[in-house]
């Protein structure tokens, strides 16, 4: 078993073809609360990953949940963050449109990803897998969906600023193809940005 990533919340191990995500203890939290939080977030993430797949978005198959540990398929591919920086324009557009379609499918089913950045997406073959639903939730509001897209937009700005517009346009194309309610969400995205602040969960 090999440690592959030490995140803010979790340690990730790879054991053959299985990822083991263990939510780790936070020193600043009271022990009991900490344990409850870690368990409930683990369960919530596993549920959302399964919901997302049922909604037609590629996600790793969940193998097992036990307390603060979830085991899932290892998606052997490349982080979309790295892919976008090396591919040509047409492929970049295809990828961003595909991401938009996935976001549309999630939102159509009231699934909020919560951290829709290009480091939480993996390209495998020609498919894009969504991972890391730890900050996600089920929420049917236009506000929650608008904020979800704003997180994506900001991730483009900070990691791929040269392609921000091109990628966002392609994303919106995919999103509106998949999700009837797209107009309201995009309008809200605009007003959230004008408001100049939004209530992120971290
Ligand atoms: N099922 C998986 N298949 C392949 N790689 C994975 C898988 N799950 C996680 N990873 C890799 O581990 C990294 C961290 O996992 P994840 O995003 O779920 O945890 P995190 O708590 O958000 O950690 P971080 O703060 O580093 O993002 C991912 O960015 C990805 O590179
Ligand atoms: Mg992550």
Brief rundown of the structure:
This protein has helices at 31-54, 80-86, 89-108, 142-159, 164-178, 182-195, and strands at residues 2-6, 10-15, 18-23, 62-66, 69-73, 78-79, 111-112, 121-124, 127-130, 137-138. It is an alpha+beta fold.
Distance between the termini: 31 Å
- Whole-angstrom Rg: 17 Å
Q: Which hetero compounds are present in the coordinates?
A: adenosine-5'-triphosphate, magnesium ion
Mean pLDDT: 94
Order of helices and strands: EEEHEEEHHEEEEHHH
- The oligomeric status of these chains comes to single chain
Return the CATH class of the largest domain: Mainly Alpha
Return residue spans where pLDDT drops below 50 for at least 5 consecutive residues.
none
The number of domains: 2
* CATH architectural category of the largest domain: Orthogonal Bundle
Strand content: 15-25%
Proportion in helices? 40-55%
- Bulk shape: globular
CATH H-tier superfamily of the largest domain? Transferase(Phosphotransferase) domain 1
Descriptive account of the structure:
The chain has 202 residues and is α+β, with helices and mostly antiparallel strands. The protein has two domains: 2-73, Phosphorylase Kinase, domain 1 (2-Layer Sandwich); 78-195, Transferase(Phosphotransferase), domain 1, CATH 1.10.510.10. The chain has six helices and ten strands. The strands form three sheets. It has a five-stranded antiparallel beta sheet, covered by helices on one side. Helix 3 packs across helix 5 (164-178). It is globular, with a radius of gyration of 17 Å. The model has no long low-confidence stretch (mean pLDDT 94). The structure holds adenosine-5'-triphosphate and magnesium ion.
């Amino acid at each position: 078993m090999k440690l592959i990533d030490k995140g803010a919340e979790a340690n990730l191990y790879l054991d053959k073809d299985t990822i083991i995500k263990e939510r780790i203890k936070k020193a600043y939290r009271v022990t009991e609360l900490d344990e409850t939080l870690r368990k409930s977030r683990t369960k919530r993430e596993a549920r959302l990953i399964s919901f997302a797949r049922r909604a037609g978005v590629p996600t790793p198959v969940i193998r097992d949940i036990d307390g603060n540990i979830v085991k899932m398929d290892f998606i052997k591919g490349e982080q979309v963050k790295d892919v976008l920086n090396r591919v040509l324009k047409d492929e970049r557009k295809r990828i961003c449109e595909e991401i938009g379609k996935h976001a549309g499918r999630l939102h159509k089913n009231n699934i909020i990803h919560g951290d829709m950045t290009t480091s939480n997406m993996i390209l495998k073959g020609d498919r894009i897998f969504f991972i890391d639903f730890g900050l996600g939730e089920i929420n049917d509001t236009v506000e929650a969906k608008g904020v979800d897209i704003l997180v994506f937009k900001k991730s483009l700005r900070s990691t791929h600023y040269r392609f921000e517009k091109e990628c966002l346009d392609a994303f919106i194309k995919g999103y509106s193809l998949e999700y009837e309610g797209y107009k309201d969400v995009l309008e809200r995205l605009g007003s959230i940005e004008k408001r100049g602040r939004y209530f992120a969960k971290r």
